[in-house]
Amino acid sequence: MRIEYDRDTCIGMYQCVAEWDGFSKDMDAGKAVLEDSEEIEDGVFSREIPADAELDAKFAARVCPVDAIEVFDDDGEQII
């Protein structure tokens, strides 16, 4: 399972940070940070979700008020 995060869309509500420790706060930029990710296109970051963190990562995506976070299954289908 993979997560993608659009940093440019993020408005810094940090609800994702409260749901999953894969996100942290960048208070200087007023944006969340997807830890251990790589930038796959301008402002979009991606990483694999550890099996034991899948539920938390899904919750992080669901609570984002601006839909800056997407989750994909192992077949590449977007599930959130």
TrEMBL record:
Q: What would you give as a GO molecular function for this chain, any one?
A: metal ion binding
Residues annotated as signal peptide: none
Domain of life per record: Archaea
What the entry lists under SUPFAM superfamilies is as follows:
4Fe-4S ferredoxins
Q: Cross-referenced InterPro entries, in alphabetical order?
A: Fe-S_cluster_ET
Which UniProt keywords are present, listed alphabetically? Answer: Electron transport, Iron, Iron-sulfur, Metal-binding, Transport
What this protein is called in its record is Ferredoxin
Species this chain originates from: Halomarina oriensis
